[in-house]
Specification:
This protein has two domains: 30-91, Cytochrome c-like domain (Cytochrome Bc1 Complex, Chain D, domain 2, Orthogonal Bundle); 93-151, no CATH class. 58% of the residues lie in helices and 3% in strands. The protein has helices at 2-24, 33-40, 56-69, 75-88, 100-106, 111-123, 129-133, 140-143, and strands at residues 93-94, 150-151. Helix 2 crosses helix 4 and helix 5 crosses helix 6 (111-123). The structure holds heme C. Heme C binds at residues 39-40, 42-44, 48-49, 62-63, 65-66, 69-71, 81.
Length: 152
């Protein structure tokens, strides 16, 4: 009996690890998430997207391919999905080396935020997200869902 209980405990421990991992890798909250789930969730899970990254044109191609596979939505909804994917599953951006213009367009930062980051990184390398969120004038809450794209 003891070994049975031990086994159940082991199985449960594994289950916790797996579900914890999946939760940490969920879909980032942001404009377009609901549309993505409604349009793209019709045939398969978001796991086909989570963990992958691409340029806007790559995501446009993917969405076009899904249209050919039978995805149905309005053009506006497809455009919203592309925008969501390009923003949250876009290419990586190195906070310390990216050009100011790239920070602005890729991460949708204001000019003031970009200036604050450039000033901070000139003074010393920004080590991680924690350090980035402490840069005066940076809206860390808005950057949080983009965390997987940020490199240092
Ligand atoms: C009508 C059904 C359907 C809908 C709706 C759909 N897909 Fe797919 N998708 C598929 C099929 C079928 C595959 C291939 C599945 C496989 O290989 O396991 C696929 C695969 C994918 C892949 C893996 C790479 C590839 O091209 O095979 C990605 C990424 C993807 N879909 C993204 C999306 C996105 C983004 C949307 C929303 C715009 C979407 N899908 C909506 C049917 C659909």
């Amino acid at each position: 009996m003891d070994t049975m209980i031990k086994r159940i405990a082991q199985v449960m421990a594994v289950a916790v690890v797996i579900s914890g991992g999946a939760a940490a890798q969920g879909l980032p909250d942001g404009e377009g998430k609901d549309t993505f789930e409604a349009v793209c969730g019709a045939c398969h899970g978001a796991d086909l997207v989570i963990g992958s990254q691409g340029t806007k044109s790559r995501w446009e191609e993917t969405v076009d391919a899904m249209k050919n596979r039978g995805a149905s939505a309005s053009e506006a909804e497809f455009a919203t999905v592309v925008k969501y994917l390009a923003k949250y599953f876009g290419m990586s951006v190195n906070v310390n080396t990216a050009a100011a213009a790239e920070l602005e367009t890729e991460l949708e930062l204001s000019k003031a935020e970009v200036e604050a980051i450039v000033k901070a990184r000139t003074a010393g390398k920004i080590a991680n997200f924690d350090a980035l969120s402490k840069v005066q004038g940076v809206n860390a809450k808005a950057l949080e869902p983009l965390k997987t794209r940020l490199k240092y």
